[in-house]
Model the fold of this input.
Amino acid sequence: MQRFVIEGGKRLSGRVSISGAKNSALPIIAASLLTANRVVLNNIPDLVDVRMMIELIEYLGAKVEFAHHTIKIHTPKLKRIDAPYDIVRKMRASYYVLGALLVRARRAKVSLPGGCAIGPRPVDLHIKGLRALGVDIDIEDGFINAQARRLVGHDVNLQGPKGTSVGATINVMIAAAGAQGETVINSAACEPEIVDVADFLNAMGFDISGQGTHTIIIRGQASTRDVEYGIIPDRIEAGTFAVAAALTRGRITIENCRPDHLTIILAKLEEIGGKMTRGEKTVDVRGYGRKQAINIYVAPYPGFPTDMQAQFMALLSITPGTSTIKETIFENRFMQAVELMRMGADILIEGDTAVVNGVRKLSGTYLMASDLRASASLVLAGLVAKGKTIVRRIYHLDRGYEKFEIKLRGLGACIKRQRE
Ligand code: UD1
Done:
């Protein structure tokens, strides 16, 4: 196992280039199985999860070349229609192959993903949506067994108990793209990654409109052409570097990002005391002061992303005053709090709300990463902590941040990767 060793106290400055969005890359690679035509994807981040998705589509029959952030995919014929437990347990997003397998083979068998560290993660909305398209689904021996003689477009409402679902919206959109007739997804999620998947499907020759709103219309048909497509930059990676600037009172120019996808994240940093200059594809973040406590209410896009609250918790833990974070999407997503408290943070968890009283300093110590974004939060805290911080189990972080420590070092951080 590997760990990061961080010497805190360096003010970060310089330029950092943002990689492609993990949460676009995974469904888009899976959606490439929809076609026997050739697919070229650019700006693909080199991440453990991306490598795992490639392994899965190769297992299913795709021929794949991946180099220099470009993937070439060609799937003239599917060899298999199942996503085995061993792959799904390592990467939940494996269920994105479900829709494409149904279009290509009319059958799919995908292991149920189960829960994960951040709480239960049901797939009932995925199943509801696919059933509406005429898919027969049985759950047997931990697998979703799905088959459909024909996929037929239909209206479906994907409102869940916690609001919209990114995964269900994408899975149903992919299946509906190759169905007969029109599907209208009501209460669709409208995250930028969903727009990206829809734009990719349109580039393949499918017909999707309304992406980015809560109503997506899909006129099912066949994919007609080879496609080359570049995916959007990762807004969570960009947000994480913006927090790093604020936290270390540094100045970071974040390049190759989409400032329009970062609206709420940058607004919250401004509320705390940071200053921003937004360009077309860059944001210059000056973390001149951590002046003002704030309240964060996590909500689906364009609300504050659940994937950014852990990083903000690190920042708020040394911002004077009392801040609150209300997490409305996942039930168990404050796991970084206990570790931050071991560094001296003053955090009280009351149900879905964290009350963070800013302290003057954090102290470095041994920390255990528990999930992807919690890991980022601990690394960020280590950057300002007094002394040495050792973050263990960083394989979580490698799932979602490309060359994180190398990019941080480029900004002046003192961080190295070590074997345990
Ligand atoms: C995606 C992102 C993840 C992000 C999350 C919320 C990927 C690979 N992952 O996860 O980084 O944190 O969106 O922005 O893109 N739900 C149900 N039934 C379902 C599906 C979801 O009740 O069938 C619930 C979930 O438990 C959760 C909420 O809906 O409480 C939102 O989940 P969802 O948007 O589906 O998250 P993912 O797509 O799994």
Notes: The first helix runs from residue 22 to 31. The CA atoms of residues 59 and 80 lie 7 Å apart. The first strand starts at residue 2 and ends at 7.
